[in-house]
Amino acid sequence: xxxxxxxxxxxELLQELIRVDTTNPPGxxxxxxELLRAYLEDSGAECELYARVPERANLVARLPSRGDGPTxxxxxxxxxxxxxxxxxxxxxxxxxxxxxxxxxxxALDMKGQVAASAVAIATLAREGFEPAGDLIFAATADExxxxxxxxxxxCEAYPDAVRCDYLxxxxxxxxxxxGGKPYYICSVAEKMSAPFRLRVHGRSGHASMPGIADNxxxxxxxxITKLGDYVPERQLTPEVTALLETVTGVAxxxxxxxxxxxxxIDSFFAAMVEPLLSLTFSPTMATxxxxxxxxxxxxxxxxxxxxxxxxxxxxxLEVTRAALGDGDYELESLEAHGGTRSPIDTPLWDAxxxxxxxxxxxxxxxxxxxxxxxxxxxxxxxFGTVAYGFFPSRAMSPELAATLVHSADERxxxxxxxxxxxxLRHAAKSxxx
Length: 433
Ligand SMILES: [Zn+2]
Prior knowledge:
This protein is α+β, with helices and mostly antiparallel strands and about 425 residues long. It is about 35% helix and about 25% strand. Helix 7 (about 240-250) packs parallel to helix 8 (about 255-265). It binds zinc ion. Zinc ion binds near residues 77, 109, 110, 143 and 170.
């Protein structure tokens, strides 16, 4: 790679990564891991590939320390979701540089951060930088499907390769303005994704004689309405307390107080805070009869539900039963992932805060619990790692970025790539000294 600047280097590396089709399924992340290994070994970083099956390798690069300071790991995943070329105005796997942005599937989620992490560690290696504790870069497979080839497997099968005190992953980093002041959102916790099935029972019959049957679809309607109308019990979390304290200057005394103070800043902020105070229910799918003229005996409703860290699926189902009351139905948990948090008062937080202040003296980092989960939870659970989601962005609005992730015309401004490299280098240099 004959790049002349960090900016050119990270741009070129991202373009090359996008051109490697790692659509998951099937993934085929080994090609991306090999590309990264070639790039990193050129710069003197130690690299190892770990693969449960040959075509789905995870890359781990390491800059060893001579001391015993804290270990920092840059985590990212190399797989991407499907792209339908017909919906795009660029080639999804073309990696085109257009108007100061790199276009292609994975630019935001998250080959941009893969490239920035690799360039951060490569440039530090070339400078002869010696970290206080080992600096590790893990580019893992299979985040989007989570079938056991990526971070989860790596933590279980090769814990010594990826054990770390601190970790920087995807999940946040966007610059937002709240009450006219700038903040960079840093995700320190993730809600648990715990969808469940509500199965409503009735009795089938011919649709021409509704009186002889007991229509499960009709019975489901009132239960769905109850879930939609349900106002869950709210509780104050460490993340909301710290977020409100950062933005309003005052720690809230109750969940109601937090919502009221957020509303005084603006309605968007209140809407952002509300789901962080409780579990949420969103009925999203329903199936009943497969025939127009047959009254269904069963109606299945799938409910997306996100729990605060610390809430269990058993508690969730208890709350659900209380909300629905007695009836001819059953509840079944479908899965439960994530739902972990890291403390906010840590040296990694200080590193984020110092970097934000240097970038924009009037800006502050703001901690948040995000609704979705990332691979961070495997590391929190396996090693007690302090894991934050922080990849700074300010050239593209968070609203636009949200519409492009997992969608058509995904792209990332080169300015934000460069910003990401700068932050990651800063974090590596700050920790442990
Ligand atoms: Zn992702």
